[in-house]
């Protein structure tokens, strides 16, 4: 029975989600559940939450898997230590080794952005609209900024485990708030939701959620809101163009809360065309179809990747 199911977990800053999929062509959801991460309570508490979710999945299905896919906010060093995780309590810890000992099963781990890209490529919008796409670039624009690359259905992790990780590349011509990585001009410090809200507040002295800033920009009632939305479009276009100049993907999929800003798919795409090293840009830029569970679906798919 184990070989007939795919198990995945997605470890986020506020919640950990688990899913069991059937291993048939349609990958139907057999079980799905979420628990709080509780990172503020420390590393051991996060491990205990993962174990709690794992036991719930086992109780529901009546068995445990031989392998479990797991998406994480960071990635592992060659020595097996977690790095680049915005849930900083996990950084420097032997997460894979500790969880394999705790759960008694092999873990297949990947960055959550890679899981997002894999899920949309194999189960989501790319699979539905462009099933023959060979190179998929999955963009995360949310509380943080990240990315994942899938080529011929396989996640590109890379030599150091940072394949597709464009969030902390410097964005020429832009200055932002201090990022946890130490930079103040990278994509995350410019294009993330909190960074855009910070930019608006730094110009006005007023704290305002991004959705309200976007609404005011569309209505033309706030010139700083207009500037903030323009900053997102131009920054997105320039940042993505640098990836396209190297990777030239068949399709780009945008996940995360900032990805709900509709202008990204029109004005943002036009900005890509403005900056890309080509006389045109016509690759599709798509909204995802799997919602905020794309990461956990991708984690489950790692088992077969």
Structural features:
single chain, 305 residues, alpha/beta, Nucleotidyltransferase, domain 5, 2 domains, five-stranded mixed sheet, 37% helix
What would a concise description of this structure say?
The chain folds into 2 domains: 2-112 and 292-304, Nucleotidyltransferase, domain 5 (2-Layer Sandwich), CATH 3.30.420.40; 131-288, ATPase, nucleotide binding domain (Nucleotidyltransferase, domain 5).
Question: Can you put this structure into words, describing what you see?
Answer:
It is a single chain. The protein folds into 2 domains: 2-112 and 292-304, ATPase, nucleotide binding domain (Nucleotidyltransferase, domain 5, 2-Layer Sandwich); 131-288, ATPase, nucleotide binding domain (Nucleotidyltransferase, domain 5, 2-Layer Sandwich). A 5-stranded mixed beta sheet has the order 3-2-1-4-7, with helices on both faces. A 5-stranded mixed beta sheet has the order 10-9-8-11-12. A two-stranded antiparallel ribbon has the order 5-6. A hairpin with a 2-residue loop joins strand 9 and strand 10 (154-155). The chain is an alpha/beta fold and 305 residues long. The protein has helices at residues 43-61, 95-103, 112-122, 125-129, 187-191, 193-204, 210-219, 223-247, 267-275, 294-301; strands at 5-11, 15-22, 29-36, 67-72, 75-76, 82-83, 106-111, 135-141, 145-151, 154-155, 251-255, 285-286. 37% of the residues lie in helices and 20% in strands.
């Amino acid at each position: 029975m184990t070989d007939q199911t795919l198990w995945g977990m997605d470890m986020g800053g506020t919640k950990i989600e688990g899913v069991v999929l059937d291993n048939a062509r349609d990958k139907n959801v057999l079980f799905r559940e979420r628990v709080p991460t509780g990172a503020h309570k420390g590393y051991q508490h996060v491990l205990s939450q993962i174990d709690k979710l794992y036991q719930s999945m086992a109780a529901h299905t009546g068995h445990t898997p031989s392998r479990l896919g797991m998406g994480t906010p960071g990635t592992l060093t060659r020595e097996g230590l977690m790095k680049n995780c915005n849930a900083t309590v996990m950084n420097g810890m032997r997460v894979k080794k500790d969880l394999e000992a705790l759960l008694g099963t092999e873990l297949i781990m990947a960055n959550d952005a890679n899981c997002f890209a894999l899920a949309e490529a194999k189960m989501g919008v790319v699979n539905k609209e462009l099933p023959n796409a060979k190179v998929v670039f999955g963009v995360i624009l949310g509380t943080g900024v990240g990315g994942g690359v899938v080529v011929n259905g396989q996640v590109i992790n890379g030599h150091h485990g940072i394949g597709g990780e464009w969030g902390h590349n410097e964005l020429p011509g832009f200055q932002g708030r201090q990022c946890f990585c130490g930079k103040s001009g990278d994509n995350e410090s410019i294009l993330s939701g909190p960074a855009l809200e910070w930019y608006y507040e730094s110009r006005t002295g007023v704290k305002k959620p991004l959705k309200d800033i976007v609404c005011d920009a569309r209505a033309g009632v706030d010139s700083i809101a207009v500037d903030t939305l323009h900053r997102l479009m131009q920054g997105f276009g320039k940042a993505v163009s640098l990836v396209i100049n190297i990777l030239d993907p068949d399709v780009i999929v945008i996940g995360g809360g900032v990805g709900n800003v509709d202008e990204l798919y029109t004005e943002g795409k036009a900005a890509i065309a403005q900056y890309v090293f080509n006389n045109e840009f016509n690759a599709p830029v798509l909204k995802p179809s799997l919602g905020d569970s794309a990461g956990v679906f991708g984690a489950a798919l790692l088992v077969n990747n």
